[in-house]
Amino acid sequence: MINLILLLSFIYFNSQQNMHQKVLFFGDSITELGVKEKGYIALMNNRLSKTKQSEKYQLIGSGIGGNKVYDLFFRMEEDVLIKQPDVIVIWIGVNDVWHKSMFGTGTDLNKFESMYTDIIQRLQKTGAKVYCCTPACIGEKTDHSNAQDGDLNEFSKVIRKIAAANNAGLIDFRKTFLEYNLKHNTDNKYQDILTYDGVHLNDVGNQLVADMMWDAMIGK
Amino acid sequence: MINLILLLSFIYFNSQQNMHQKVLFFGDSITELGVKEKGYIALMNNRLSKTKQSEKYQLIGSGIGGNKVYDLFFRMEEDVLIKQPDVIVIWIGVNDVWHKSMFGTGTDLNKFESMYTDIIQRLQKTGAKVYCCTPACIGEKTDHSNAQDGDLNEFSKVIRKIAAANNAGLIDFRKTFLEYNLKHNTDNKYQDILTYDGVHLNDVGNQLVADMMWDAMIGK
Amino acid sequence: MINLILLLSFIYFNSQQNMHQKVLFFGDSITELGVKEKGYIALMNNRLSKTKQSEKYQLIGSGIGGNKVYDLFFRMEEDVLIKQPDVIVIWIGVNDVWHKSMFGTGTDLNKFESMYTDIIQRLQKTGAKVYCCTPACIGEKTDHSNAQDGDLNEFSKVIRKIAAANNAGLIDFRKTFLEYNLKHNTDNKYQDILTYDGVHLNDVGNQLVADMMWDAMIGK
Amino acid sequence: MINLILLLSFIYFNSQQNMHQKVLFFGDSITELGVKEKGYIALMNNRLSKTKQSEKYQLIGSGIGGNKVYDLFFRMEEDVLIKQPDVIVIWIGVNDVWHKSMFGTGTDLNKFESMYTDIIQRLQKTGAKVYCCTPACIGEKTDHSNAQDGDLNEFSKVIRKIAAANNAGLIDFRKTFLEYNLKHNTDNKYQDILTYDGVHLNDVGNQLVADMMWDAMIGK
Question: Which residues, at least 6 apart from A105, have a Cβ–Cβ distance to it below 8 Å?
Fold first, then answer.
């Protein structure tokens, strides 16, 4: 009898494990908004539901407005590791660049690189799969004349480099957003193509991000 | 007798006038260095000499390190108009962008536009021909990842627009420098292709600038 | 008969002139808000009314949010000289300092000085009386720990110097605001003593400013 | 015989321990320069030698130009803990403030506080005595008109607070430098009283710092 209970427990426990692959989205305000209605995480949940995979994945948002790589570093223990996610999606960088001109407290590129690397490696130590995302944009103009384009490109290059060096996944929003805008933003507008303010996703942007995330992690 | 002297004076005076077409270069440290040995203005003088046109053109440098459009505006009377140049080459913009991150005292884009327009129009009122130059670069990397690329592109667009709107000449260093670097800067280096520090011209850069200036103003 | 009309016209014309001493307030958002209900210019108008001096003074607000000394310089003709004021109160400087850290487009101190001097001198040429005001505060803490305190003090010193050098009046808000806060801001708060956000006047601040303006220009 | 050796070894070992109290100076360029000739650490070594206490203290410099609190945080293990110092003097903050206007990569005040606190607590866990120093100055003017005065005062307040909260020692250079300048810098000069450039110590400054460090740690 006890053996049977143990057996059943074992089966149940394993099925639970299989059911819930925990995917944690770790980032700034863009991630914070992702869990709201029409946000990309909400969209992914809808799609999981429609494709009857809701029991296989648990999507957890952990985005805080204004966060820079430092903030992820310091709240990694409490906000990520403690939850034992199987997959972590890091999406950070916009504020590391933007806060330079807004507050004078942006991030030195070399420190961005070392801290980001540290984060990847600590998360990977738990056996989790880590995906790195490049910052999409601060401004959607396509002629390289958004004020922070140079810096965002440089930070994106660093992210691509350390993702590769650490065998992390890469979701290259910066590249895809520019390609999308080159096609659809023929008036070279600053916003209102994939974002509503140059930075934060509008409905089209949320759909694009949800699709790219899905393809990278689930849909393949 | 007196009539003859008058006549000769008149002829001499007119030939003098024809001989000396005054070309004034109005700008920042790049222009300031242009008159030094191997500088682009010095190179143009050499070429005038070789082509026996020295008597036709007088090249005057008026560049001051650190100058922004404001500075040109305020020293226009004293440093330009008083010298009654026939041609004025305005080359400004690097510090308007650069000083944002260096000192917090860069130039608002809309004020750059209105002040630049003002300068062009006042100079043109004297009958002088005005040429506008786009800022070449702060960093020579070709993948749009120099920190100020976005801003420099935006300021360059404004310069192109107001040059056209005011029927001023345009010498588009930003465009040509990028094209040159796309060909020759295959390692995506920050400097040492056309500049020695990302901003100030090396020998190759001085030659390129001298040639472009020549073609725009003299050689055609 | 005609003589009589002329005489009456003359009397009327002169009384008109005497009635309207035009006082123009030339500045940024603080001045812009001054004409609103409970603003310091509105308070001064009330006091003129109560003391039956409304016909002697006409108070004109010319404040535009975000203005720096550059902006005053460029709109001086259109917004001030054309109105032929008898008295001009210049109150500028907060944004020249603040925009350094907010947008990277603050004002170089030496350019602030030369442009401010220029403004004073052009206005004085019309025979108008000019008053200069020091910027009150960005933050009301009294232990010299508001981020921009150093810069505001430096800019205020320049204003005091050029006001004296040009025989302009001086209304030293920076000095008086600090003294007031030393007495009343015993908790060393950033705001809510004379301002509602560290910069823009609350009711107490508007009253203090109205009183200081009155004493300087009218009440003596 | 073996026992005797053991005993002697024990005595020797203990005297060794007493002899060498390791004092590690952990900071930026100011600390880096402290070990050079005439630097304050060199001056302290001289004084130890004169007072025949050289065997009691070993002074170790660990300063790196441009360091901010982040840098100390990340090199703490390798540069401090591994050396097992008995006393650690933390002197940081100038670049956390200065880099805001120089590079746009200064430090957010709340992050400065949390990281500094973290450093103190980790160092104290080893049993070491920790001293915190306030940043002396960026500019020596005494009328609160050095551009960074406000920020430096704010950061100094935070340092005083967390030093007290963590029972760390406090060496208040900011307070003493201002007091010294109020007495000796009667011309309100930017530099050349205790520093040669507003930030880095001249001979008088090095002597003052050496004396204050001595009094705090050794001389009492």
Answer: A99, D100, D104, D105, D106, D107, D108
